TrEMBL record:
<comment type="subunit">
    <text>Homodimer.</text>
</comment>
<keyword id="KW-0067">ATP-binding</keyword>
<comment type="similarity">
    <text>Belongs to the class-II aminoacyl-tRNA synthetase family. ProS type 2 subfamily.</text>
</comment>
<dbReference type="InterPro" id="IPR004500">
    <property type="entry name" value="Pro-tRNA-synth_IIa_bac-type"/>
</dbReference>
<dbReference type="GO" id="GO:0005524">
    <property type="term" value="F:ATP binding"/>
</dbReference>
<dbReference type="GO" id="GO:0004827">
    <property type="term" value="F:proline-tRNA ligase activity"/>
</dbReference>
<dbReference type="InterPro" id="IPR044140">
    <property type="entry name" value="ProRS_anticodon_short"/>
</dbReference>
<dbReference type="InterPro" id="IPR050062">
    <property type="entry name" value="Pro-tRNA_synthetase"/>
</dbReference>
<dbReference type="InterPro" id="IPR033730">
    <property type="entry name" value="ProRS_core_prok"/>
</dbReference>
<dbReference type="InterPro" id="IPR036621">
    <property type="entry name" value="Anticodon-bd_dom_sf"/>
</dbReference>
<dbReference type="InterPro" id="IPR045864">
    <property type="entry name" value="aa-tRNA-synth_II/BPL/LPL"/>
</dbReference>
<keyword id="KW-0436">Ligase</keyword>
<protein>
    <recommendedName>
        <fullName>Proline--tRNA ligase</fullName>
        <ecNumber>6.1.1.15</ecNumber>
    </recommendedName>
</protein>
<keyword id="KW-0030">Aminoacyl-tRNA synthetase</keyword>
<comment type="function">
    <text>Catalyzes the attachment of proline to tRNA(Pro) in a two-step reaction: proline is first activated by ATP to form Pro-AMP and then transferred to the acceptor end of tRNA(Pro).</text>
</comment>
<dbReference type="InterPro" id="IPR006195">
    <property type="entry name" value="aa-tRNA-synth_II"/>
</dbReference>
<feature type="domain" description="Aminoacyl-transfer RNA synthetases class-II family profile">
    <location>
        <begin position="38"/>
        <end position="341"/>
    </location>
</feature>
Length: 445
RNA sequence: CGGAGCGUAGCGCAGCCUGGUAGCGCACCUGCUUCGGGAGCAGGGGGUCGGAGGUUCGAAUCCUCUCGCUCCGACCA
């Protein structure tokens, strides 16, 4: 993309309403625009990141064998009366009537609807196990939205639902989700720690929240420093292998890590003192096992091998996709702007033309831009007629992890500059070498 | 929902107390100069002062109502 033809409305000054770094930077980098309290338009740069996160979530869900579908944002109140949650949910649920006076709601989650879909089409244990998920906009009418997309009223969420015959099968689904989530967050360049949690209005006995450590997080967290060092890395996981999946879960959950809701001071005190950590975390996902809570209430049964009808065992699992954009920035920024991890960056590399209009510099930039695109990369070429300082400031603000700087001074020696946004370190090399380095960097992403 | 604030140009703000032709910085447009870390000079455009009532000769300013937004608290992916 050529910046001169893109839509990137960056702000030089800080918007008054933004209190935390991610909110401020998303507004300044032209990623979002607020349209109402807790409701945002996603401008091109923000939309790109959002789409990228969605893509990673889709890939990892499908790798784990889960099946995508798409349910509507609007739901009928009747479904929610069946589960008893229409009255239980409270004013957080946005309710309204259509022209025929039918009671509707903007879905805050989809347990009822997925159960309705399941019971309409599945009647035998032979069709299990089944895990369906979608990535869809939700609405929760928070009393007090704040922190930009981190706590909006409208938000994009991946929510998935497993259907199994037995408790053991459902617990395997639970474990499978935990592992797939670990991989999802790692690919995004995040350390998200699974912590034993409270089940809240979803209900259920088994639940973990995934928290990204950040001092602007909403939850107080207590953990053993060792848990933050755990990595899934590039190990290959067979998601159908119960033992393997369970072992990984054990590895990640046997080290102490809890939110204030489930914190146990006595257990915490058993951790060697030098490893005890108290901090804050941003919740970016949660998994639940809740058995037959919805299936029993809504009549989602299958015929078991012995001929009896049994309610299916279920769980649900969510990833706050839009909130992750904010969490990523909270975890990756400095005083100049955002620093995107390679896995989620909106553009792979920025090209800064230091002397727009200079024939040799323009030609060199065009060549690099063309070569990168031909190699399958998505570069952002700053071809605006701006001064170097302005171009650098924009690149730093929007946080592309790599920058190729091209100017007459370097070109005289046939060199360009490759700069890391994270370390600030620059290295002079030929344009070909810079392109090769970019290819190398992204080969593992 | 309790408490506290704020709505004046695209953004950040002053003006309001003490009523009298609406200002500043950034951004934007034109020209010249400049050109490796958010340039300088000169000129220019843009605002029914959130909305509705009221008081007054006269309201951004005073009064009433209303809408929106933000912050602290309780609540939450």
């Amino acid at each position: 993309m050529r910046l001169s033809r893109y839509f990137l409305p960056v702000l030089k000054e800080n918007p008054a309403e933004a209190q935390i770094a991610s909110h401020r930077l998303m507004l300044r980098a032209g990623m979002i625009k607020q349209e109402a309290a807790g409701i945002y338009a996603w401008l091109p740069l923000g939309f790109k990141v959002l789409r990228r996160l969605e893509q990673i979530v889709h890939e990892e869900q499908q790798r784990a064998g889960h099946i995508p579908l798409l349910m509507p944002t609007l739901q009928s109140a009747d479904l929610w009366r069946e589960s008893g949650r229409y009255d239980a949910y409270g004013p957080e649920m946005l309710r309204f009537k259509d022209r025929h006076d039918r009671e509707m709601l903007y879905g805050p989650t989809n347990e009822e609807m997925i159960t309705d879909i399941f019971r309409a089409h599945v009647s035998s244990y032979k069709e299990l196990p089944l895990t369906l998920y979608h990535i869809q906009w939700k609405f929760r009418d928070e009393v007090r939205p704040r922190f930009g997309v981190m706590r909006g009223r409208e938000f994009l969420m991946k929510d998935g639902y497993n259907f199994d015959l037995t408790r053991e099968d459902a617990l395997h689904a639970y474990n499978r989700h935990m592992v797939s989530y670990l991989r999802t967050y790692e690919r995004m360049g995040l350390t998200a720690i699974p912590m034993r949690a409270d089940s809240g209005p979803i209900g259920g006995e088994n639940t973990h929240e995934f928290l990204v450590l950040a001092n602007t997080g909403e939850s107080e967290v207590f953990y053993d420093a060792a848990v933050a060092e755990l990595k899934l890395g590039d190990r290959q996981v067979d998601y159908d292998n119960r033992e393997e999946v369970a072992d990984i879960c054990k590895e990640f959950t046997s080290v102490y890590a809890r939110t204030d809701e489930t914190h146990d001071e006595a257990l915490f005190d058993q951790i060697p003192e030098e490893r005890r950590r108290v901090g804050r975390g941003i919740e970016v996902g949660q998994i639940f096992y809740f058995g037959t809570k919805y299936s029993a209430a809504m009549g989602a049964t299958v015929t078991a091998p012995d001929g009896t009808k049994v309610p299916v065992e279920m769980g649900s699992h969510g990833i706050g996709v839009s909130r992750l954009v904010g969490a990523l920035i909270e975890a990756n920024h400095d005083d100049k702007g955002i620093i995107w991890p390679e896995g989620v960056t909106p553009f792979h590399v920025g090209i800064v033309n230091l002397k727009q209009g200079d024939a040799a510099t323009d030609t060199a930039c065009e060549a690099i831009y063309g070569a990168l695109r031909a190699a399958g990369f998505d570069p952002l070429y700053d071809d605006r007629d701006e001064r170097a300082g302005a171009k650098f400031a924009t690149m730093d603000l929007i946080g592309l992890p790599w920058r190729i700087t091209v100017g007459p001074r370097g070109l005289a020696k046939n060199l360009v500059e490759l700069t890391s946004r994270r370390t600030g370190e620059s290295e002079e090399m030929t344009a070909e070498a810079a392109i090769a380095r970019i290819a190398e960097i992204y080969a593992g992403v």
